[in-house]
Amino acid sequence: MEEKTMAKRELAEYKAKLTSDSGVLRGKIPSPLVRELGGRPGDYLVFNSSGGKVTVSLSRSRGGAKKGAKGGKRK
Q: How far apart are the first and last CA of the chain?
């Protein structure tokens, strides 16, 4: 798991609107936040909450599923 600390500059605030889909709360991650963390397609954002404070970390995908899907068994 990779954790990135934001530079000590102006604090940035990101907002996401939550919607209810049959009782399941859903929201979209703001694109500027993902870019700032260095996210790529297939990566995971992990949110940890402790004492009213939330930290976000980035977990890189392994790419194993992509490699396995490319080729089949060769004879």
A: 37
| Domain annotation for the chain: domains and CATH numbers | 19-61 (2.10.260)
Q: Looking at residue 2, what is its pLDDT?
A: 61
Number of H helices, E strands in the chain: 2, 4
> How confident is the model over 55-68, as a mean pLDDT?
71
For tokens 């899907």, name the residue. Answer: 69
Contact 57, 1 (CB under 8 A): yes
Cβ neighbourhood burial of 43 (10 Å; 0-12, 13-18, 19+): middle
